[in-house]
Specification:
Layout (H helix, E strand, L loop, with lengths): L5 E5 L3 H11 L4 E5 L11 E4 L2 E4 L8 H10 L4 H4 L2 E3 L4 E5 L4 E4 L3 H11 L3 H24 L10 H11 L6 H6 L5 H6 L21 H7 L3 E3 L4 H13 L3 E3 L4 E7 L2 E7 L4 E3 L2 E4 L3 H7 L5 H7 L6 E9 L9 E5 L6 H6 L10 E4 L14 E9 L10 H18 L9 E7 L1 H8 L32 E3 L10 H22 L1
Length: 498
């Protein structure tokens, strides 16, 4: 390759690293600059006293996306990572009520569903192929697709598919048509919370998620989700991608409609022919680029919720835990307005608990565990009174109270240490706008697909974006697709300029 092949990537998240590999394999000279001392962004991890914790994602889903990504690197997915299939995918425990194991063993699932509501299992079976079909069509026509303009012919198919998939119907209302039991309705809609969305208001486009989990499978890599990042870093370095950690960017320099390079916090400057930002897109428009109208428009969009995430090193292992556990609040539906309108935490929240030693003993010293517990809260909103230290205390108390009610009355006494991420942590550590922990920009119908912020800047045509706040959205598999789409756009532009 000749000139104009110097690529600078801001941020060593999974999307940034993946884009770097794709471009390096095409002959580009790639350098990545990461503000933190570790790669991976929210797919990072940390160690303390022999305990290992994944910071964000705790399981691998949509495995076919990883398989295709590894194949594009000339690698075989299952040879690069040691994977444990999660079955049950998770345990869902209702307060003083049912305990459901969401499993691909349909005989067990049938017994559980029928024990809750007669005839529900057959309804579930009728929904399953519809859910899987919705997933495949969404992936092909909405998610894994670059959008160019209103004249793009694919938009017709996109709009038709949204209507066909009842995207304008709310997910909860869609599931309500099939099931009378509030327990089953919750089991098939709560997943929206882990996209930072209100399950009562999310589009029914997402109804495919639980069906995708059972059909495609959910996995956990040995070494944790950060092992994916470590593996990609190794592949990137094999392709001479240079990754600079502890290297925060201060400004993207522009001149005459072109992004010319990046100015670092230490005053150094790195010239670039192409810049890709893996940092949070609204944060980039507000902090690294000259102010313009689009930054103001981005600030008015809807953002995901945030979360208090507690990392506890335990000196014991509790048999009550599966690897993935959801403890549903007795006021589950009532809590949504507290999180998404009041921007606070409920008095009695729904709680997620991850116990990695159930499949990977290397996550903690022998006979111990590295627990992650999540309580959702509103994102940072300066119009609200939000005392995060007070709310953190309330979140901790709520978790310990619920675990005690589940028979783990001595849980607190087995905590060796605690690390807690608050909305302020997500904001400062990862530059996530409003401390929105689930990819910043929400997945609203008018913030998805064609309507999501583009992966190429409108004015600075050599500036691109990858990651959760551009198309297609948040989540580790979508980060891989985002990297694929942005590199396809870059390579296509090069081909047409020859």
């Amino acid at each position: 390759m000749g000139s104009n092949n110097n690529v600078v990537i801001i941020g060593a998240g999974l999307g940034g690293i993946t884009a770097g590999i794709h471009l390096a394999r095409q002959g580009y000279n790639v350098s990545i600059y990461e503000k933190n001392t570790f790669p991976g962004g929210r797919c990072g991890n940390f160690f303390k006293d022999g305990h290992r914790f994944d910071i964000g994602a705790t399981f691998l889903m949509m495995p076919e996306i990883y398989e295709k990504t590894y194949a594009s690197f000339g690698r075989i997915f299952t040879e690069e990572l040691k994977l444990y299939r999660m079955d049950p995918v998770y345990k869902v425990k209702f307060k003083e009520r049912e305990e459901i194991f969401f499993t691909s063993d349909l005989a067990i699932l049938k017994k559980q569903f029928e024990g809750i509501e007669n005839g529900s299992y057959n309804k579930f079976l009728r929904l399953m192929p519809k859910g899987y079909d919705a997933y495949k069509k969404s992936l092909r026509y909405i998610i894994d697709h670059n959008y160019n303009s209103l004249l793009d012919f694919s938009l017709i198919k996109y709009c038709f598919l949204l209507l066909k998939l009842n995207a304008l119907t709310r997910h909860y209302n869609f599931i309500k048509r099939y099931f009378k039991s509030e327990v089953l309705r919750t089991i098939l809609t709560f997943q929206n919370l882990y996209m930072g969305k209100d399950p009562s208001r999310a589009s029914s486009l997402f109804f495919f998620i639980p069906f995708m989990e059972l059909t495609s499978g959910v996995f956990f890599p040995r070494g944790g989700m950060h092992q994916v990042v470590e593996n990609f870093v190794s592949i990137a370095r094999e392709h001479d991608v240079k990754i600079h950690l502890n290297s925060p960017v201060k400004e993207i320099k522009v001149n005459n409609g072109t992004a010319t390079g990046i100015l670092m916090e230490d005053g150094s400057f790195h010239e670039a022919d192409i810049i890709i930002s893996n940092a949070d897109l609204p944060w980039v428009y507000n902090n690294l680029l000259p102010k313009n109208k689009l930054a103001g428009k981005l600030n008015k969009l809807k953002y995901t919720s945030s979360a208090f995430v507690f990392f506890w090193g335990l000196d014991t292992v509790y048999p009550q835990f599966e690897q993935h556990n959801v403890y549903v609040s007795g006021r589950h539906n009532e809590n949504f307005s507290t999180i998404f309108t009041d921007k606070s935490i409920p008095d009695e929240p729904t709680i997620y608990v991850h116990s990695p030693v159930k499949s990977d003993k290397s996550a903690a010293p022998e006979g111990q565990d590295s627990i992650m517990a999540i309580v959702h809260t509103g994102h940072i909103d300066n119009r609200k009174e939000q005392n995060w230290e007070t709310l953190k205390t309330l979140a901790r108390q709520a978790i310990l109270k619920r675990l005690a009610e589940e028979g783990m009355t001595d849980f607190k006494s087995h905590i060796k240490f605690e690390v807690c991420y608050t909305p302020k942590t997500w904001q400062s550590l990862f530059n996530l706008t409003n401390g929105s922990a689930f990819g910043s920009l929400g997945h609203e119908i008018l913030q998805m697909g064609y309507f999501r912020p583009r992966n190429q800047h409108k004015t600075y045509k050599n500036l691109y974006f990858v990651g959760g706040s551009t198309h297609p959205g948040s989540g580790t598999p979508l980060a891989l697709i985002s990297a694929k789409l942005v590199t396809e756009r870059i390579i296509k532009k090069r081909m047409f300029s020859m």
